[in-house]
């Protein structure tokens, strides 16, 4: 089972990129072989992943995740191929469908027809990455450039989508290489996500997709305090409809029940349940992301799985 960790450097650092590289190098030295970077409103995740991967040879880097809105797939393809060339083949592109409320507030636009936009976005990416060219006019997007769309050294690129609903999983199975679910527990993986995306990929004649499950993690000897801290961090997700549905499907009492909290041994045991449920990869998302005292035990778990 491949494992990775979410990378998120201290925002108080003098240089964000330098701090990211330093954290990635420390994680690599601790035995971590894959880091994932979330898109934020400050840094650019694809660009940052390219810098980190170039600075720490042998370390796999990926985005977890870059929302497709308001990004056109031609731009994403250009960025992703540049990052892949910079990392010499160690970059993975993780995309997300986005969240309506933050997007409306930030961009002043409500991106409707989410599934149709996802299909068009992936169709353009698939064409560029598989054929080196694109000529597409869909319901939501058009891509008809009169210039090169490939970057030397920029392919192949694994493309994943943070798909958890039935329609998104079917589109992802048809056009991407796997899914990146967050807060989807073992029951949801085994009974719904794995069979749904696998059936879609098989029907489309594509390889068996990866299921890269991201799990919030806090390594601590004080489980009660750890769960309280997890509740504070994860409360935001319980209010997002797509996550609320996943939490309900898992049948847990609270979103906190989907966090792996406890000692190194406890957390490792909890994470192995995801492998048993069909996850091909597991990503540890630290609930406390600053300070070596919080991060080093998480890296220890990742390196030992």
From TrEMBL:
It comes from Mycolicibacterium grossiae. NCBIfam families: F420_MSMEG_4879 (TIGR03564). This is LLM class F420-dependent oxidoreductase. It comes from the Bacteria. InterPro entries: F420-G6PD/mer, Lucif-like_OxRdtase_MSMEG_4879, Luciferase-like_dom, Luciferase-like_sf. The lineage of its organism: Bacteria, Bacillati, Actinomycetota, Actinomycetes, Mycobacteriales. Gene3D superfamilies: Luciferase-like domain. One of its GO terms (molecular function) is oxidoreductase activity, acting on paired donors, with incorporation or reduction of molecular oxygen. Residues 9-280 form the Luciferase-like domain. CDD domains: Tetrahydromethanopterin_reductase.
